[in-house]
Amino acid sequence: MAATRRASIWEVTLEDVVAAGLQLPEAGDFLAAVREAAVGDAAETWRNLLAAGVLQPRHPHAVHQLVFYSVYGGWDAAIRGPPPYWFPSPVYSKDTNLGRILEFHGRKLLGTSYSNPIDSFSLFQKFSVQHPEVYWEIVLQELSLKFQENPRRILDTSEQSKYGGKWLPGAVLNISECCLLPMKRSDDSVAIVWRDEGDDSSVNCLSLKELRDQVMMVANALDATFSKGDAIAIDMPMTVTAVIIYLAIILAGYVVVSIADSFAAKEIETRIRVSKAQGIFTQDFIIRGGKTVPLYSRVVEGSPCKAIVVPASGKGLEVKLRKNDLSWNDFLSSVERFPRPFHYFPVHQPIDAIINVLFSSGTTGDPKAIPWSQLSPIRCAADSWAHIDVQSGDILCWPTNLGWVMGPITVYSCFLSGATLALYHGSPLGRGFGKFVQDAGVTILGTVPSLVKSWKNSNCLEGLDWTKIRTLSSTGEASDVDDDLWLSSQAGYKPIIECCGGTELASSYIFGNPLQCQAFGAFSTPGMSTGFVILSEQGLPYPDNQPCVGEVGLFAQNMGSSVKLLNADHEKVYLEGMPIYNGMQLRRHGDIIERTVGGYYRVHGRADDTMNLGGIKTSSVEIERICNRADANILETAAVSVRMHNGGPEQLVIFVVPKDRSSDWEVGVLETKFQRAIRANLNPLFKVSFVRVVAEFPRTASNKLLRRVLRDQMKKELSTRPRM
User: Fold this and answer.
1) Which stretches make up the AMP-dependent synthetase/ligase domain (predicted)?
2) What is the pLDDT of residues 290-345, one digit of tens each?
């Protein structure tokens, strides 16, 4: 049943509250508290409701929907922008990382224009783009960094470069060593907490000293097994052992090759071949969601190089190894003869030395092999410090994998800021993960929208306490407003910091920020020191602050971003065909984004996910946001356009995945609902030509929706129809 919503909060009745799930007499007390908070305009009313604690995580989601959508029932987003749901407080803002910096440096940097962290944030963001040397000199002091040789300067622009100069020239360090030093914390502080799936009895802890000892032992074992400088792959779940291996490879001067544990043998083979990896760490099996999935067998099929195999359980390996492969225990036994196996001298390298090879999704052809230098961890940790507000003492959990960019980002965001890394050894889809978040006292939780949708629809978190969370974050795909409403309410209406970027950027280019009001499913700012313009169809930049939709063009001068690829021409991929803006080379990213009234941003998908309907350009994401809310039994939709075999205009096709797959669907009824929703909320000229109900959508291993595959399926269907 669709959620009840009224045109005004004053139109909400006691019957509405009861229908949403509250019982009498609580429903009456609740409605009285809502009306008492309904003072001023919609945003002020919502702010009052949150301040008074009227809405609680224990309330049914229908109650949160009823209040939020009714409060903003008369809100005109076309005139006022997206409705805000979270508001920074003057007191809270000064305790954030950027707020503290602004209070200390704001007057000096911004002069009389400085007011306070909230009102002056946007001005400081622009300052960071115009004066990156000043910004980065401050931020480098805030991270756990130890240079063996200090950089000669922050940015060297003396040599002409399409990328705007060379960052931290002359610097020498080992970024893994920086993660292991007691600079932002003590040796006995907790570095990692974790839990195995199915074991709800306790939360396991590893101190910083214990982590450092384990990493150094593995580094010694690496030297006994491989040759200096070798590329060594990791293809296993993001467990404590995987993180130790990751840090050890870099500490010892080798190069990590990141491979997601979901890949088939062919994808493993491609990444091993492109990176020239000489070895691979993996597991015998993956235990996830109560299922045991083979992993070593896939690695054997995809790679001839030496494999070191970690047992998925504590019972020892349950597979027979190839002749030259090693068990984890045999690998570690190589250091038994060492007099000091827990001591290791880190290999210090220039700042631009390659430490990690990651890969793009590879939806067409070979995936791009993107080398990370030691600048990349600094970039991602700094952005998490600035936007997600990661601080020493935080406990950060982000279910991901070292094969995807969020894996390394999570590692560096924790260890270079002094935060504790929280790892769940199992599936994040079920209640076990949610209980771990509760029991571990997670303060920062990262997600992807599809994960949030699964939690919401399965109701698996009911009764858990997530109120220790102070910040949520989301990345990977466009967020759904109602799913975000549900997620934020679970933590007592904490902000969801949206992030959008890419592996080649080592971070994101647009974010939310705790110094700004936040709106569901929207971004509030470009990243710190990140500049971009939005380009028209003619390739011309729209004026700053003008609401518009177009392809984003990033300023190429961006610390930590890639400057080369291992298997493709970097300039051809990212720079060729992009315009010059104010003397600066723009960099291609491929996203279509919208700048709204009020200065928020929305991502409309990739440039190749746009469509032309009746001569009007629109995006798949924009249509999907509307169609997802057209019927309560819709799990998700995908919008594509196709041309008929006899030519003519593009036809709009909506693919649907239902929540209840056993139900019979009247496609004609769905088509009518979609048409009505699009006409009312987007454009009355857009016509829905076809609706198709499917069990699931094709996705990449990183869970990105493959609209191209759906488009090809529809084209094939239409090609078999008789021509008129």
Assistant:
1) 185-552
2) 899 999 999 999 999 999 999 998 778 989 999 999 999 999 999 988 889 999 99
Q: Which of 281, 361, 288 is nearest to 326 (CA)?
A: 281
Residue 682 token pair: 């987007």
Q: Rounded distance, CA 586 to CA 574, Å? A: 9
Domain spanning 172-592: which CATH class is it, in words?
alpha beta
Strands 584-595 and 548-555: antiparallel
As given in the structure block, the two tokens for residue 203 are 């939360």
Under DSSP, is residue 149 helix (H, G, I), strand (E, B) or coil?
Answer: strand
Residue 604 pLDDT class (50, 70, 90 cuts): confident
Q: What secondary structure letter does DSSP report for 181?
A: S
Tokens of residue 270, six digits:
């491609």
Q: Specify the CATH number for 609-720; select among 3.30.300.30, 3.40.50.300, 3.30.70.980, 3.90.226.10.
A: 3.30.300.30
- HSE (side-chain half, CA atoms, 13 Å) at 357: 27
Integer Cα distance of 219 and 405 in angstroms: 23
Q: Tell me the β-bridge partners of 199.
A: none
- The CA–CA distances, whole Å, from 485 to 60, 83, 389, 493, 562 equal 12, 12, 21, 8, 35
Distance between CA atoms of residues 712 and 181, nearest Å:
52
194: CB partners within 8 A, 6+ apart:
203, 204, 206, 239, 240, 422, 423, 424, 425
Q: What is the pTM of this model?
A: 0.89
